[in-house]
Specification:
The protein has 72 residues and is mostly beta strands. It contains one helix and five strands. The chain has one helix at 48-54; strands at 12-17, 24-27, 32-35, 46-47, 64-69. The longest helix has 7 residues, at 48-54.
């Protein structure tokens, strides 16, 4: 299983976020987010608030839609 490099939990999901044009990978435990084409490693992730701000949006948990669990 793929483990989050920040919190070391295996709760990573491919998600779509309403208002963001591309899918992302998100840790449901610590709320770290990576762009879909970024390597899921320490230093590449952003917390959800900062990720949304980078897309000109406010962080809103209701906009997250889980697609599938990231296994590797």
């Amino acid at each position: 299983m793929k483990v989050c490099p920040y919190c070391e939990q295996d709760d990573l999901w491919r998600v779509s976020i309403i208002g963001v044009d591309e899918d992302a990978v998100m840790c449901s435990e610590c709320d770290t987010v990576w762009k879909h084409d970024e390597e899921v490693v320490y230093g590449n992730g952003k917390n959800f608030d900062n990720f949304m701000a980078a897309h000109g949006k406010e962080a809103n948990w209701n906009t997250i839609q889980r697609k599938e669990k990231v296994e590797s």
